[in-house]
Every structure is written in C-alpha cells, then in structure tokens.
Amino acid sequence: MMIYMLDTANIKEIERLFDLYPIDGVTTNPTIIAQEQKPLRRLLVDIRRVVGDDAMLHVQPIGSKAEDIVAEAMEYRDLCKGNYYAKIPVTPQGIKAMQLLKQRGVKVTATAIFTQQQALIAAKAGADFVAPYVNRLDNISSDGIGVVADIMTFIKAYGMPTKVLAASFKNVEQVHRVCLLGAHAVTITPELFESLLYHPLTDRAVWDFYHDGVPYYDELEMIDTKNNKA
Ligand code: G3P
User: What is the pLDDT confidence band of residue 226, given thresholds at 50, 70 and 90?
Assistant: First the structure.
C-alpha cells in the first residue's frame, strides 16, 4: 500500500493534515527546516508530539564526514525517539555513514538521488528507503519517472528489501505516475497532498446532495450546517 509522507516541518500544516488524512510520516531536510526559522531541535520535538511515536520522522544531518553524520543522526534519534529515520545524502561519506548507522540499528533513508546507481549502492549499503528527486530530474530535461522505474526494476530483480520513497514533486501527474510504477512511498508538500484529493465536481456533487436533501432530512439540528451551505 502506498505510503504518504509530508515533506515539511510546518507544525500547523502537519497538525492539520494528520488530523484529516491517512499520512504515515514526515520528511525533513535542512532547507525545509530553514523555512520555519526555528531551531532544529525544538521543531523535531514539536513534530514528534504532533504525529505520535508510530509515524515515521526522517531527519537529515548537516555534517559532511561520515563520523559527524553518524554522531548527529544518533543525537536526533535520541531526541525524536519513536519511528525515526536518519536521512543521508548519497555522497561517498554518506554511504559510509549509512553502513555505520545500520550497524548501530538505526533506520536509514538515502536521499538526494539523481541516478539509478546511486540508489543501488545506497540499497546495498543497507538503506531502508531510497529517495529519487523526480521534479529536480524533470527540471534538467532528464526523466524523473524513468529513473524511479529503473530503480523499481532492479530492487525487484535483486529482491532487495529497500523501498522507493519518491521525492521532489511539483504536480499531481508526477505523483500519479510513480504510483503506477508501484513505488512504495511518496513525500510531498501539504499543498500538493491536498491537490491529490481536490476536484471541483466533487465539491459540486456535495453541494447538490446537501441542497436536494435538506428539506427531507429531519435530523439537521445534529449537523453542523455551516460547512454544507457554501
Ligand atoms: O524530500 C526531498 C525534497 O525536499 C526535495 O524537493 O521540492 O526541494 O525539489 P524539492
């Protein structure tokens, strides 16, 4: 079943969307953290409080040497508790850090993936998720969906336990197409998540249902009619 994650650190949006939708986790990176203009550690504690211990929380260290990445990742694990993933870019030091973290029993998401071989090496290093950047690939006239398709093919061919967490989306069609490939997970902004669900004809149908039915429904005092009148 598709895993949906929110690619944001905005507490209000996380709280609002987790209340409404079947969302499995939150992914962050230093750029996403910077958008909130709050210290990382405070944000992580707040996100965990809102999503609960079962939801996945992916946090990216900022260090570049393997030992620094590992030390940071262990600190964030202790801080975040619950279902935590260290999100590590696929640099040479990052690949080393992934192996060290797996030896310590920490779950790993390999990120900033632009090529099939980056994903394969990260999977071999033990990454639980590999995160190809679909829209950033499309933006350089590459083929984001094609890269995801290739990664899915070799994960299946080699029988690897690694899951594909497709990332960097800008539109519904990109998300739809990675779902058709059977990608295991997507991470998307709150705005794009809600675009997946929105259709004006659904709103129109609900409006018609309400106005057709209202003279005949005699339990209206039980219903909050404010939201149905629009
Ligand atoms: O999770 C990766 C993602 O944050 C990259 O997305 O929109 O910055 O290309 P974007």
Answer: low
CA dihedral for 28, 34, 39, 42, sign (positive or negative): negative
| Residue 230 to residue 217: CA distance in whole angstroms | 18
Burial (CB count within 10 angstroms: exposed 0-12, middle 13-18, buried 19+), residue 181: middle
Q: Catalytic residue at 156?
A: no
Provide the 8-state DSSP code for 21: S
Read off the amino acid at residue 222: M
**Given the CA of residue 168, which atom of ligand 1 is nearest to it?**
6
User: DSSP for 70-100?
Assistant: HHHHHHHHHHH-SSEEEEEE-SHHHHHHHHH
Does residue 168's CB lie within 6 angstroms of at least one atom of ligand 1? yes
Q: Per the structure block, which two tokens stand in for 212?
A: 């057709």
| Residue-level pLDDT at 1 | 87
- Does ligand 1 have an atom closer than 6 angstroms to the CB of 174? no
Q: CATH classification of 3-198 is 3.40.50.12280, yes or no?
A: no
* Residue type at 174 in one-letter notation: Q
- Any idea what DSSP says for residue 227? G
Domain parsing of the chain, residue ranges? 3-198
- The closest of 144, 152, 145 to 123, measured between CA atoms, is 152
169 Cβ inside 6 Å of ligand 1: no
Nearest-CA residue for ligand 1 atom 10 is: 168
pLDDT of residue 62: 98
